[in-house]
Design goal:
Blueprint lengths: L2 H6 L2 H13 L8 H12 L5 E4 L7 E6 L5 E7 L26 H18 L8 E7 L12 H7 L8 E12 L2 E4 L2 E4 L1 E10 L3 E2 L9 H19 L6 E10 L5 E2 L2 E10 L2 H15 L1 H4 L3 E8 L4 E3 L1 H14 L4 E4 L9 H7 L2 E9 L20 H16 L5
Parallel strand pairs: 3-4, 3-5, 5-16, 6-15
Antiparallel strand pairs: 1-2, 2-4, 6-16, 7-14, 8-12, 8-13, 9-11, 10-12
Length: 397
């Protein structure tokens, strides 16, 4: 029996797991109920060694080994977002202000499905080696140390002997039975900047007697937005967005300072460095306007780099499962993904799994109405399992 057919036998269980997780979402580093439930489900399976709390208190590492051979990792994230759900489904979030609006509940259910299939295949000797199932917390947010879940697991040695890592992400802009696969850089470096412009401030009726940080910022902003359109090659991917401006507290007082915060997104290390340099150059005009400034850039998760050979394994697995599946070769956009930390350290790849509901309107990631076509789960499980097994065999694709 094929892997796909094996998964079809417990499709209802996959959906049940996902809906249960969806009803009780938890924020980054707070996935205590989620990890306990994952542990309970895994403990009912055979041939699995389970570790909890490696790197972070809520991580779960499940290992299935058939002896000497390569070690391959399959990873899913478990955390939710601070969003009030507005789907009105029977399985809507029961935790006010918290929602699985990025599909991590589905990722977790799919990885549980992979664990079930792999544990059932142990005695068939379908592969030789070790497959690690990594249930990772905190993909969406960083803690006070500026770290999300992946760096903690890397520091704890979870990936030390791993030769290849696979992951998937739900894709609500593609239909079930469709995939996005992309070689090389596929999601963005995500950095943040924060700047403060200092001036003298003064009376609103006598602006000529003071220096005005708001006026200075009004001249800085066109230069900031012009970095992408005039300083970065059109073929390169880069975005600078301002998300917050703060200044003043009265209508008749010119404030003494103005602050601004935003994000910088890019694909390649070279453009990442260039954008930071250009940002510093733009703010230098503040000096010629009679002010001072302080600018800090905080580097966040690195761009996701998809290993081309591992992508070939994914494509091979897709063709083996169902030949009519539509595979789109395109990058995933300017969103961030902390699996990028893993792809910096070892060969890794992530594919996007189509899951759009056929309703005629969008249920995008990170929105209160996000939801998915659960019939996509079987394909997701099958691709992960087939890809992991192929990689353990070190077959040339």
């Amino acid at each position: 029996m094929s892997v796909y057919c094996k998964v079809l036998e417990f499709e209802d269980q996959l959906i049940e797991w996902r809906r249960e997780l969806h009803q009780f979402p938890e924020l980054s580093f707070e996935e205590f109920r989620t990890s306990e439930r994952v542990m309970e489900i895994l403990q009912a399976m055979e041939h699995i060694n389970i570790e909890k709390g490696v790197g972070t208190p809520t991580s779960i590492i499940a290992t299935i080994s058939t002896g000497e051979g390569p070690t391959v990792a399959l990873r899913a994230d478990m955390d939710a977002l601070p969003i009030q759900e507005q789907t009105n489904t029977p399985y809507e979030s029961q935790n006010p202000g918290v929602m699985h609006a990025c599909g991590h509940d589905a990722h977790t259910a799919i990885l549980l499905g992979a664990a079930k299939v792999l544990s059932d295949l142990v005695e068939t000797e379908s592969w030789k080696g070790t497959i690690k199932l990594i249930f990772q917390p905190a993909e969406e947010a960083q803690d006070e140390h500026g770290l999300s879940g992946s760096p903690y697991l890397l520091q704890a040695g979870v990936y030390d002997k791993v030769e290849a890592a696979f992951a998937l992400h739900m894709c609500p802009w593609k239909k079930s039975g469709q995939l996005l696969i992309n070689d090389g850089f596929s999601m963005a470096n995500v950095d943040e900047f924060e700047a403060t412009i200092y001036a003298t401030g003064g009376h609103g009726g006598y602006p000529e007697k003071s220096t005005d940080p708001i006026w200075m910022l009004s001249l800085v902003l066109p230069g900031l937005y012009g970095i992408i359109s005039r300083r970065i090659a059109a073929a390169e991917k880069g975005v600078i967005s301002v998300g917050e401006i703060r200044s003043g507290n009265a209508t008749n007082i010119i404030p003494a300072k103005t602050s601004i915060r935003g994000t910088i997104r890019s694909y390649t290390p070279a453009i990442r460095d260039q954008l930071e340099r250009e940002l510093h150059q733009v703010f230098q005009m503040v000096h010629s306007l009679g002010g001072e400034y302080q600018l800090n850039v905080s580097r966040g998760e690195p761009a996701l780099y998809n290993d081309p050979y591992l992508n070939q394994i994914v494509r091979h697995s897709v063709r083996k499962i169902q030949k009519h599946i539509d595979v789109f070769e395109e990058a995933f956009g300017m969103g961030g993904e902390d699996f990028g930390y893993v792809s910096q350290k070892l060969p890794a790849t992530m594919f996007f799994l189509g899951c759009a509901l056929d309703e005629g309107y969008s249920r995008d990631l990170h929105t209160p109405v996000f939801d998915i076509d659960e019939s996509s789960f079987v394909l997701g499980v099958a691709i992960l399992v087939e890809s992991a097994i192929v990689r353990t065999k070190q077959t040339i694709i």
